[in-house]
Amino acid sequence: MRTGYVLKTRLSEYGALWLASFVLVLAGAGFVTFALGRDLIEVADTVLPISFALLGLAVVVGVGVTLVSTASLIAKCLVTLLALLLILPLLWSPVLAVLIIATIGQVVIEYSQAYAQFRIVVSQLIYPVVAMLVEGPLVAAVWNAFQIVASIVGFVASALQVWRVVKPWLARSALEA
Fold first, then answer.
1. What is the pTM of this model?
2. Along the 177 residues of the chain, how does pLDDT read in single tens digits?
3. At what angle do helices 3-30 and 40-68 cross, to 10 degrees?
């Protein structure tokens, strides 16, 4: 298999996974919170760990499939590296969905143990890098930058995935018209 094809396939799967996770958590947690009247904190503490586990499993399966495939060593290494680099933005997708629901429902999500644990783990991962560069109030700025970058990466990956699906449909519609 060609390296470009393998990377394009895995990135497409990543985009679909990001979008599916975001939409499913947004719809599911929103329905349970608003329609069924459940507390968002309880919903987040249930939904987020399940989402993290499923997304982690999907990444492991995607990398594993590539590693046992006939792809080149370069493709296998690049897919593994991309998985490591993109895992945090991928895990951010269900968190972002919960944050949107919290904003709509005017709920303080910081009381969610799953959300707090996610922030702690991410902070522990990025703090050493930030501490090597600078110390002080920039740590909060890096956290905010992570949120923005993770949201943009996920949105772009999702938009490209949607475009790949819509593009052939638009071409057929234009030919039929």
1. 0.74
2. 688 888 888 888 888 899 999 999 999 999 999 999 899 999 999 999 999 999 999 999 999 999 999 988 998 999 999 898 889 889 999 999 999 999 999 998 888 999 999 988 888 887 776 666 665 666 677 778 878 888 888 888 788 878 887 888 777 777 776
3. 160
